[in-house]
Amino acid sequence: MNHQPKTAIILCTCSGIISEKIDWEKVRTQLAGHPDKPVVTTDELACGADNLEKLAAWLKEQGPERVVVAACSPREHERTFRNLLTAVGINPYYLQMINVREQVAWVTADPDQATRKAARLITAALQRVGHHQPLMERHVPVRTDVAVIGAGPAGIQAALTLARAGRIVTLIEKEPFFGGMPVRFEELFPNLECGPCLLEPGMGELLHGPESEHIKLLTLTEVTEVKGSFGNWQLTLRQQPRYINPELCIGCMICATVCPVRRENRWNCGGELAAVDGPFVGALPNLPHVDAGHCLKLNGRECGACLAECPVEGALDFNDTIRDSVVEVGAIIVATGAEELPVSPPVFAGRDNVFSAYAFERLLAMTGPSGGELVKGDGSAPASLAIVQCAGSFDDVVTYCSGTCCQAALKYAHISAAKREGLTVTRLIREQVVAGVNAARLFNHDHSHVIRYRGLGDLTVAETPNGRVITCASSGTQIPADMIVLCGPTVPSQGTAQTARLLELGVDDAGFIAPIHALSGSFLSPLKGIYLAGTCRGPGDIREAFASGTAAAGVALSELVEGRDLAVDPQVAVVDVEQCAGCKSCIRVCPYKAISWNEVAKTADVSDILCRGCGTCVAVCPAGAITARGFSRAMLRAEIEGVLS
Amino acid sequence: MSCQTMPDRAPYPAAEVMSAGAPTEVRIVAFLCNWCSYAGADKTGMNQLPVPAELSVVRVMCSGRVEPTLILETFQKGADGVMVLACHPGDCHYKEGNLRAFCRAELLERMMPQLGVNPARFYFDYVSAAEAEKFSQVTNDFVASIRALAGTDSER
Ligand code: SF4
Ligand code: SF4
Predict the structure, then answer these.
(1) Does the structure's ipTM exceed the value 0.90?
(2) How far apart are CA A207 and CA A213, in angstroms?
């Protein structure tokens, strides 16, 4: 270094606390002989408001290019002194603080040693500041629009909350209908409230209320690519054709009645749908949807029954095509949900009248395949019902509790008994977890028999002349079981797995999206600008879904404020493109996915918005191509040389 | 993140390497991560626990920033001992920088004899923001052990 910049050194006595141990006079004498000729001042209490003013005046008078402050911990006062530098027109990153209070005066018994140590650290800082570069905090505007992926209760709630605050929301749903799981549940634990009734006001508001102006609901849509970072995400979307013009269709469903094709109704777990149809009465939006796989016309065959009968010209639109689009948003809320893993243990496989919890839910529903009647496959009434809880949980298939199957089983027991007088209901449990004030209500009205079993391997099934019986091998208990409900484990939905991959979000052992902190940050992903709601984070009930939807929207609102730019810390990593060898090592190690690959230049590229300046990439780069601003190799070397000199 | 060994550290065997005799001035550089270990060093000060005067702290944002070459350079420039103190596993402010630092430390320790540096001159450990006593303990033990090494090994 040919020109040693003029450096000012501020020595703080901290009202005598520091100078009790460190003899600043001695240090000053020593510094007077320093070849760099720094200017030095001693201050009583450098962080005090009055003293800062005095120091500002002194700095202005001295006109240094760098400043070293020997005082307390930079963790406490670095910002104070950066502001001081800014105030006198010196770049705030030309500062180096030495912590002589906590780390010298208070821990060194011998004043002589303390003084020498302080002097050594100051020498190192003097050497270090020579390598400091002027840095500027950058301000970037952020978009305040938000994309919500998944239109179940959590996503709907998030979208409505954001729209009420005036935000533009794109709500992305891959099914032709929205509302997620609970909208298909007729009665909800614990008050047997009607699921659609609970959700439909919000759904209606979203489609037709004042909020609808701010919310764009895209059904049959998936996210195919995500680029960008906090404040500036770009989502590429692909919407499958519905073959229905939503502006024109009046939802009369005449098309469905005349369509000659029948397909399985996968939303209803039973029953059939026409090729053009809606899954069940009340599904929203109130539009049919043409299944391209089954529609005769779309498969090149002679048909057009629906077209002939549809009362509205143009409502059916067989020219509809895939629509690709891009939305630009400031934040993304992931609400892609969970699903029941249908288990079919060998003992139950192939037997009739065995239901998954979801299929049973639909069986009990008025809009379900049996119109809400509790009947066996042959239409006859069951005499007994066995509900196997934790079917596959606790190490059989998954290791954890699904959190809602006790609730669901209590509900099934209650509703089934009410539907069929004299029905024998047995709940097979491994554990029973129904917490909360309201839960007790249903719990106290439970008339089912409760049997504890030891996992699916503990059960055998036999058809006897008196009906079907499940035997619990461990206890020898026999359970009448004309109908069997297997409450399978809750697992991440396909959408959750796919979205986690797309956004490069980490998942936990079970495959749910891992939040930044399980307790204090359960709505936050590790990536700024991506928030989490609902069961994509793990099992939860509808109450949790509503709460987390609101919470995620709240975080997005607080972090993306209209007119408030994003302040970007300049102390980030930068890649010297000349040096980069293109090995991509840094991309792999960055914990914040801040480094991307520049295809054109064939070099790594750090996003200063995403980078948090940890320096991990600096340490792995074999080419030495990355510099951590504020903690560069040159600065650390100078500091090391200084303390060893 | 994967590493061959579990990121646990045995306490430094200070007693074994300590020898009687007059204290020698040694030069120790300690790289501390800003969030845990540096805060732990601050807490040591607040609790007025002793830290050897020979120890010079170099603050880095993350222990994962400290590459082995920087440690070797520190020895080359005349340090008698180098410490890297990191956040506890699972507590890293940057998710897993401390585990990377741990893996590198393991590797470096194995390489050091071939480079002519006694591995006993290098020390890696986890010190949280709350562990004032541990900070005081490990720094004192390490400095004592380095002092005891003086004269016993001429090479560094
Ligand atoms: S580690 Fe270094 S050389 Fe490799 S891609 Fe990153 S910047 Fe380029
Ligand atoms: S400094 Fe850390 S956060 Fe920034 S790019 Fe490098 S590894 Fe990523």
Answers:
(1) no
(2) 9
